[in-house]
Amino acid sequence: MIKLVNGVPKKLVEIDEQVSFVEHMDEDDSTAVISINKFNVDPDEVDEFLKAFAATD
Fold it and tell me: Which domain holds residue 9?
């Protein structure tokens, strides 16, 4: 389970440099869904990962 602090995940890595996660959440669009997937890939496996990811279209 994710722990929230003031409605924000306790460990948060900002991905968008222009708009923070909190700013996204403050928008008046109640139908918005935020889904973030972070992948940690070894440098020598990046090409293989990108090929596999592109194949999941």
Answer: 4-54
